[in-house]
Amino acid sequence: MFDGNIKGSSLPIVLVLLAIMLILVITLVSVVDFDTKTAENIIDHEIALDVAEAGFNKYLYMLNNNTYFYKDGENEEEGFIIKERYSGADNPEWNGYVKTYEPVVYKSGNRILGYFEITITPPAIGTPVLGIQSTGWTADRKAKRTIYVEVHKRTFTDYLLFENSKNESVPFSSQSKIKGPYFTNGDLHALSGAEFFDTVGYAGRNRATGAIFRKEGQPVKMNPLGLPTINENLTKWARAENGGYTFNKDTYILLNENKMNIRLKDETRQTNVPYPESGVIYVKGDVYISGVLDGRLTIISEKNIYICAKDPTVEEVSTQKQYDQLYNYRGVTYKNQNIPVYNNMNVINPSDDMLGLVAKENIIIHNRTNKWPQASKGSINTTVKDIQIQGALYCNSVTVQDFDYITNTDYGQIKYLGSRVVKEDSATGIVTQTIWGPKYGGYSSDNIYDYRMQYEAPPHFVEPVNAGWEVVTWKEINNN
């Protein structure tokens, strides 16, 4: 009886132990399963983030190949098929621009890792950055993550005036008004009273004692900005196969709103010529230009570009009376003058017109000739008061053909609207002391920045060495 009672009482204990062991096994299995699922979930979310990053980087690659890919870029081979465009109701400035692309498969070899979708927020006045939203999913769509990256491309048109001169600079006069961002690779040189309204950067010395800086924290000493030469990358867009025009001799151009008149030296004038599809004209000689632009155009000259007040495509004029009878275009201007400037940046439906003038030598204000339109030391005075130059300029220097020839007290100003890049400082006016008092020649200047150029430039305009899109901000967006 005793032995039987002991054996009988051990059964419940065994059952309890078995139950405990079963609970421990189930718990362990549950913990392992939970940890496995958690680890898988973490891995899936990391993969989704990697796919989103890959989508951003792939889009950035497309953008670096074409600065304006964000406007209308589509590349089916790379997977970028437009899904949705912006309308004028979203923003009149963005009307027709890409908003969202179809989801793109992301592979590693033949293995599908996931999908990404790109949505674009174009730059605008006041926010000159491009927003790229990239959403990444795993292949089974179990995990999704979204990043939003703002990028900006540093260009020469970031500045109202960029000077590369490292020699003795020509100072801004005491009456100068610089109504936009300014940068020089040399000294900041301005006389007392010169007034700067926006950012000011310099790489040399600060020689602007007494100048007025309206923006807090200015001026700022910065690293130099590399300056390229006019090379194959710029001129290739003027080739016929790329949709451009190339002319092999001196060329006279009248911008006739949405068309142009052109005459090559010793040839007959052509009228109502359409602008090139690529937006680029390359001239292996001097360029003489005036008129009103309705569109986008970049003109590159192997030599000089002469800014004229009247139509340079007409046949030669040999008397002052004949010249005076020609229509006065007052330089080169845009048809649509609705342009954001320093005291009015929030314009509605800003102008789409934009001109680039690139000269291997100089951009010169035409003011004297023997036979119009040739620039020569003749007796015909081609000067116009308050001449206007609207566009982005790139050259050795901007100067006047012969400012000593202008003997009148005041021919007014060169009214710049846009952006200028000059390799060397040069004067556009001169004051000579005589026994009868000061003698004034040439022009003073009024400098106004076109704030569209913080994020846009004329077609295929010159870019800094190693220019690329730079990340300004990066953040992850919570998909919940």
Which features does this protein show?
480 residues, alpha/beta, 2 domains, 22-stranded mixed β-sheet, 5-stranded antiparallel β-sheet
Question: Would you give an account of this structure?
Answer:
The protein is α/β, with parallel strands linked by helices and 480 residues long. It folds into two domains: 153 residues, no CATH class; 227 residues, no CATH class. Helix content is 16%, strand content 35%. The protein contains four helices and 35 strands. The protein has a 22-stranded mixed β-sheet that branches. The chain has a five-stranded antiparallel β-sheet with strand order 3-4-5-6-35, with helices on one face. The mean pLDDT is 86.
Task: Name the overall outline.
Answer: elongated
Structural class: alpha/beta
Q: For the CA atoms, what is the radius of gyration?
A: 32 Å
Contiguous runs where pLDDT drops below 50 for at least 5 residues = none
User: What is the number of helical segments per DSSP (H or I, 4+ residues)?
Assistant: 4
Which band does the percent of strand residues land in? 35-45%
Task: Kindly state the percentage of residues in helix.
Answer: 10-25%
Calculate the terminal CA-CA distance, rounded to whole Å: 70 Å
Number of strands: 35
Number of domains: 2
